[in-house]
Design brief:
Heat Shock Protein 90, globular, six-stranded mixed β-sheet, 24 strands, about 35% helix, Schlafen_AlbA_2_dom, helicase activity, alpha+beta
Length: about 575
């Protein structure tokens, strides 16, 4: 992080009026803040962040500096060493507005080493997590799940003492064993009970044979007899916000608790969704076909993922998988965040997978769902198939949110290839397009700038070489502009039909840039006036102004950070 980046960061903080998710400032005039360790722990337990010592938030982020930067650097390093695991932060003194400020850049701790906590306080009292502009003490559950993630969880093979083999559905077990014996020769030489023990469906407890939790969840006649909350709740809301009443005063359209073994819960939840979903016409090649608002295959993959990858530890067994259907989106939430080395940015672009419930996954791999298919493939392709199903339906990709205590997937109820987009695509001077290229162009038309990775995430194309070829074809057609080289290559659409009557020179600019140019068309404006005229928030306006300034499109009138400074067009 250089001084220009710090100047920009400081300007952002002043515009925002508070710290944010990735930066914490402290006045530090009276010495090292006693709460510094909390910010270090909080940043280390998420995606990292930076701390500025010598900046006063209460006086509008005034740079006050520190008296002895060398001593403060040493003190910060000592605090980092007091953490478990020790934090290897970048600590140095920088000059901001003529004063010495100590910068501490905290890297994220590897996921399998979290939580990062103050050693003298222990993990339950000394662990923090960054939330918005503050450092929050982790809950006992958050600490427990992070500690369990350091090793291989075995909650799915734990015995269910009150259950017996008679509590399992014998028909489901028979179908499962037939499948196993037809694909694995070893199990043809052992009896049923021995096979089920080898497959971790049954285990021993105090001299008795009882089902494992995984065996009960897959084959139980009614697993909720023993674990009442290990089910699915489904709610369909009339409005876009939970709790808002509909036209007739109703708080929800449908509200049900879905019980039974996992295969049955998946099937019944899909039925509930179909009962409350609408059908719409989508484009498939040159044809229009009727399809559910959300493709059935996508729903199945999302539900199976939620039930299979959720946390089954004792502390999480009181929390259900939650399915919420709104007019504008579908939300599926399960307890327990991502496990292992997988992070949100890599979902769907790699087959590398990690699961805290390996036995449950293994059993479901050979468990019929009821339509001839198995419940899951256990090949790390579930998210990729989900993305491909959405792409084929012309829909936006889902949004993933990973916290320590939960994982959420949100599906926007919006098709990219609507009639307006189809008409626009037909007007382009370009040859036949693949479905993935059509999806990408529709997204870029809305202002998105794509990379090879985001192209694959959006379209479901898994091969990086295929994505590069399709993007290159769009660039060679003259419809898309390629910027940068190799690892930093980005693509954006070139279009002359921008809003506001802007000139051909404005082709390819992001929507925020166009909105700022339009706001400045009538003369110089301050940044606050630009925000009001464009309808954009502070951060998008700041980024757009910086891009336009770097491109020679706008310039500042007055001194930087002056309240009277204004921006104007250079042409």
């Amino acid at each position: 992080m250089n001084e220009d980046d710090l100047d920009t960061l400081l300007e952002n903080l002043r515009g925002h009026g508070a710290d944010h998710l990735e930066c914490e400032v402290k006045r530090a005039r009276g010495g090292l803040p006693v709460t510094l360790w909390e910010s270090i722990s909080a940043f280390a337990n998420v995606d990292g962040g930076c701390i500025l010592l010598g900046v006063d938030e209460k006086s509008g982020f005034t740079v006050v500096g520190v008296d002895d930067p060398a001593q403060m650097e040493a003190q910060v390093a000592a605090v980092c060493s007091e953490m478990e695991p020790p934090v290897r932060a970048e600590i140095r003194t920088v000059r901001l507005e003529g004063r010495n400020v100590v910068l501490c850049v905290v890297p994220p701790v590897p996921r399998n080493q979290r939580p990062c906590f103050k050693r003298s306080l222990g993990p339950h009292q000394g662990s923090r997590v960054r939330v918005a502009d503050g450092d929050r003490k982790m809950t006992d559950y958050e600490v427990a799940i992070l500690l369990s993630n350091r090793s291989e969880p075995r909650f799915d093979v734990s015995p269910v003492p009150r259950a017996t083999p008679e509590d399992l559905d014998q028909e489901l077990l028979a179908a499962f064993l037939r499948r196993i014996r037809s694909t694995k020769e070893t199990f043809g030489r052992v009896d049923d009970e021995r096979a089920l023990r080898m497959l971790n469906v049954l285990t021993s407890y105090e001299g008795r044979t009882v089902p494992t939790l995984a065996g009960l969840l897959v084959f139980g006649i009614y697993p909720q007899t023993f674990e009442p909350q290990l089910n699915v709740t489904f709610v369909a809301y009339p409005e876009a916000e939970a709790g808002a009443v509909g036209r007739f005063g109703e708080r929800f359209i449908d509200n049900r608790s879905i019980d039974g073994p996992i295969p049955l819960m998946v099937a019944q939840c899909i039925q509930a969704l179909k009962h409350n979903m609408k059908r719409r016409s989508i484009v498939s090649g040159i044809f229009r076909v009727d399809e559910w608002e959300y493709p059935e295959e996508v729903l199945r993959e999302a539900l199976v993922n939620a039930l299979v990858h959720r946390d089954y530890s004792e502390m999480a067994r009181g929390t259900q998988v939650q399915v919420e259907l709104y007019p504008d989106r579908l939300v599926i939430r399960n307890p327990g965040g991502l496990y292992g080395p997988v992070d949100v940015s890599s979902l769907g672009t790699t087959t590398i997978t990690a699961s805290r419930n390996k036995v449950l996954l293994k059993i479901l791999e050979d468990t019929p769902l009821g339509d001839g298919r198995m419940v899951c493939e256990n090949r790390g392709t579930g998210i990729a198939r989900m993305l491909m199903g959405l792409a084929e339906a012309g829909m936006e990709p889902p949004r993933f949110t990973d916290t320590i205590s939960s994982f959420t997937v949100e599906f926007p109820n919006h098709t990219l290839l609507d009639q307006d987009s189809i008409d626009w695509l037909a007007s382009l001077p370009i040859g036949p397009l693949s479905r993935s290229q059509m999806m990408a162009l529709a997204m870029m038309r809305d202002g998105s700038v794509l990379t090879n990775a985001t192209y694959r995430t959006l379209t479901g194309v898994q091969d990086s070489r295929t994505a590069s070829r399709e993007l290159r074809e769009l660039a060679e057609s003259g419809v898309v502009e390629q910027l940068g080289t190799r690892g930093s290559t980005t693509y954006r659409v070139i279009s002359a039909d921008h809003p506001g009557g802007l000139s051909e020179k404005d082709s390819g600019l992001a929507n925020a840039d166009l909105a700022v140019l339009k706001a400045l068309a009538d003369g110089p404006r301050s940044r606050a006036e630009i925000e009001m005229a464009s309808g954009l928030a502070t951060d998008p306006v700041h980024r757009a102004l910086r891009r336009l300034r770097d491109g020679g499109r706008v310039r500042m009138l007055g001194k930087p950070r002056s309240p009277s400074a204004k921006w104007t067009l250079t042409r």
